[in-house]
Write a structure and sequence with these properties.
- The chain is α+β, with helices and mostly antiparallel strands and about 290 residues long.
- The chain folds into two domains: about 5-140, Alpha-D-Glucose-1,6-Bisphosphate, Chain A, domain 4 (2-Layer Sandwich); about 145-290, START domain (Alpha-D-Glucose-1,6-Bisphosphate, Chain A, domain 4).
- It is built from six helices and 15 strands.
- The strands form two sheets. Strands 8, 9, 10, 11, 12, 13, 14 and 15 form an eight-stranded antiparallel beta sheet that branches. A seven-stranded antiparallel beta sheet has the order 1-7-6-5-4-3-2.
Length: about 290
């Protein structure tokens, strides 16, 4: 039996593992760092991060002279620790994430292919990993904020009232009078979270419902912003938000519901969220306990 040659590349990123994992696996970010040199880029990426799920990144020369798809199927996904997958050509890849607090060490081991020299393959994969480190460390610093409230009402009612159009407008008015959404809460759907500014111009967030398990869990992935009615999902002005998550967990607790909200926030908005979220959740609690 022929023994496959394996190649290992690694780097240490000065960012906590939660953010490293997010940037490594989120298509929005993958398109920004997945290139070995400045004359190549990744114009499209998709990722179904689960065992049996597939991924694909289109890697192309910026001058249009060459393009190919890099894809495979996941065989192991251990959040914040380990990813394993089989490439479309049958080669195996393992990625280890070692949590060192404010730093994360990434070790990637892959089966070599036969078309190119070992050192060329090693240098190419290492260049991409180095680019990942540079990009990830350049992102605005964020932290996970957490808010909880006990609501004396069944989980089913809390879940329903939180996303029902009329009730949503009421409890989110704490953030901005006139707050509302356009779109669907169904998994995979695009949704806009909107509100008028002082001049009546509509602004807010462009997002996607990453997960929705009724009466249990909702995960929202922010994709960009709405400015004066225009959706903006690329460019410097959306970097603070694109790829950020807002998660809601509903649990039966003490004959009622424990609602937990976790969200990514930059330092710029932290104090605002810490002031407004408790008010908004108190309003939702009042609605559900009537």
């Amino acid at each position: 039996m022929e023994t496959k040659t394996q190649i290992t590349v690694e780097t240490t990123v000065n960012v906590p593992v939660q953010k490293v994992w997010e940037v490594w696996t989120n298509p929005h970010h993958i398109m920004k760092w997945n290139n070995a040199s400045e004359d190549w880029h990744t114009p499209a990426a998709e990722n179904d991060l689960r065992v049996g799920g597939s991924f694909k990144s289109t890697m192309a020369a910026k001058d249009g002279s060459a393009s190919f798809d890099f894809g495979g199927t996941y065989s192991k996904v251990e959040q914040h620790k380990h990813i394993a997958y089989t490439l479309d050509d049958g080669r195996q890849v393992h990625v280890e994430f070692a949590d060192h607090g404010a730093k994360t060490k990434i070790t990637e081991t892959f089966d070599a292919e036969n078309a190119n020299p070992i050192e060329l393959q090693r240098s190419g994969w290492q260049a991409i990993m180095t680019n990942f480190k540079k990009y990830t460390e350049s992102l605005p610093k964020t932290e996970k904020l957490k808010f909880e409230i006990q609501i004396n009402a069944p989980v089913e009612l809390v879940y329903k009232n939180m996303i029902d159009d009329a009730h949503y407008r009421t409890w989110t008015a704490a953030f901005n009078p006139g707050s509302h959404y356009q779109g669907s809460w169904q998994k995979g759907s695009k949704i806009l979270f909107l509100g008028p500014d002082k001049n009546g111009n509509m602004g807010g967030m462009v997002a996607r419902i990453e997960e929705n398990i009724p009466n249990q869990f909702i995960s929202i992935e922010h994709l960009g912003i709405v400015n004066a009615g225009q959706e903006i999902t690329s460019g410097q002005e959306v970097e603070d938000w694109a790829g950020a998550h807002e998660n809601y967990t509903f649990k039966s607790h003490n004959n009622g519901t424990l609602l937990t909200v976790e969200m990514d926030s930059s330092d710029e908005f932290k104090s605002m969220f810490e002031t407004i979220w408790p008010k908004a959740l108190k309003t939702l609690k009042d609605i559900c306990e009537k």
